Amino acid sequence: FSSDFAMQYALAARGWTIAPWAESAQMDKDKDIPLTGAKDSSFRHYCACYPGGKPTYNLKVEKKDSKLFKSSKYDQTGGPYSPAVCQLCYNYSRYVQLWGSDRCTNSVPFHFSEKLISRYHADLKNKPCDL
Fold first, then answer.
1. How far apart are CA 26 and CA 45, in angstroms?
2. H or E stretch including 4?
């Protein structure tokens, strides 16, 4: 699932009510004029089609901050298991193995519905996810 869906789902799973927000804008293909929302909005959401890419994706890490994280053993840049799209095969133990800790992952147990599994990943019924 895209981040547009995942954020709403995550907030709803924790009991938050979501609704359109007047102080936000959706930036699209025009660098200066939002697709929706006011031009002077306090918060802006940038789509992948934004000219030059999403602004924060182009930020560089300052040298003094480089020790705050380490490179992952897992390729995050694309392919069939791109982290931008939920693959319906989250596994807590595997997450800890890949990332070295559970500090940034979900601590609430959950299970995917049979409907989701059969619709998008029927193969997961017969074999475990190897991520």
1. 5
2. helix 3-13
